[in-house]
Specification:
Blueprint (H helix, E strand, L loop, with lengths): L8 H14 L1 E4 L5 H13 L4 E6 L2 E5 L1 H4 L4 H16 L6 E8 L2 H4 L6 H9 L2 H11 L6 E9 L4 E5 L7 E9 L11 E4 L5 E4 L3 E8 L4 E3 L10 E9 L1
Antiparallel strand pairs: 1-10, 2-3, 2-4, 4-5, 4-6, 5-12, 6-11, 7-10, 7-12, 8-9, 8-11
Cofactor: L-ascorbate
Pfam families: 2OG-FeII_Oxy_4 (PF13661)
InterPro entries: Pro_4_hyd_alph, TPA1/OFD1_N, uS12_prolyl_hydroxylase
Length: about 240
């Protein structure tokens, strides 16, 4: 069974202080080493990824079978869409990545699978109570999450997750082992004086930040030896 490892005592106090000062904090490890390795391996081997493309208010989700269509014209169309989205990302909210849905409905066919277990761990009432103490949010009610995979060129442009009254705490459960800063995929937070703060993709690390808060994920470099893997989304209230 997958379960979160929730710090208490001095470590909890330090996390709370960091959250109060910056609006974000990180917990590592968040899973047992065995559970983290199992989920990482499952995501790395999965063939159920859907391609997620978006720009402005438009979103284009392709199931695996359509994304893998070898027809030359289809492949060229996909490349053209990706290039158009990437080239316009500085003007509009845009994103390119792969995802596996982790809604209750999507996970129903495999109720004992690793992703279903992970969703149950994230929605454990004890986790909600712990997060409520940490953040001061009065009543968390659920999660909105998906597994994500960023390969070469994939990115998420600057945004703040709003307006959405239900999203209270953004979360990224990193599953990118031995990631190099030079590989990109970094979670960045801009400040008012043009400084940047952020996090390189982590392994078995839960990054939390309060919503709304501007952030972006930089494009993954061709130098990256493997994809950036995570489970990302929000705790809802």
């Amino acid at each position: 069974m997958i379960a979160f490892l929730l710090p208490e005592g001095d470590e909890f106090d330090a996390l709370q202080q960091q959250l109060d000062e910056t609006g974000r904090c990180s917990i590592q490890p968040i899973l047992s080493e065995e559970a983290a390795a199992e989920v990482e391996g499952f995501l790395a081997a999965s063939e159920e990824w859907c391609r997620i493309r978006g720009i402005g208010n438009q979103r284009f989700d392709l199931p695996p079978e359509r994304e893998r269509d070898p027809t030359p014209q289809v492949l060229e169309d996909h490349r053209a869409i990706d290039q158009a989205i990437a080239s316009d990302s500085s003007k509009s909210f845009a994103f390119l990545y792969d995802a596996i849905p982790m809604t209750e409905a999507a996970l129903t066919p495999a109720p004992d699978g690793l992703l279903a277990q992970l969703r149950r761990a994230m929605t454990d009432p004890a986790v909600f109570r712990w997060l409520e103490r940490l953040t001061g949010e009065p009543a968390l009610t659920g999660v909105e999450i998906q597994a994500t995979r960023f390969t070469t060129g994939d990115f998420l442009s600057l945004h703040h997750d709003g307006p959405n009254v239900d999203r209270k705490i953004a979360t990224v459960l990193g599953l990118s082992r031995d990631w190099s800063l030079d590989w990109g995929g970094n979670l960045l937070f801009p400040s008012v004086d043009d400084r940047l703060e952020g996090l390189s993709p982590g392994y078995n690390r839960l990054d939390l930040f309060m919503v709304p808060q501007f952030h972006s994920v930089t494009a993954v470099s061709p130098a990256a030896l493997r994809p950036r893997l995570a489970v990302s989304g929000w705790f809802l209230g």
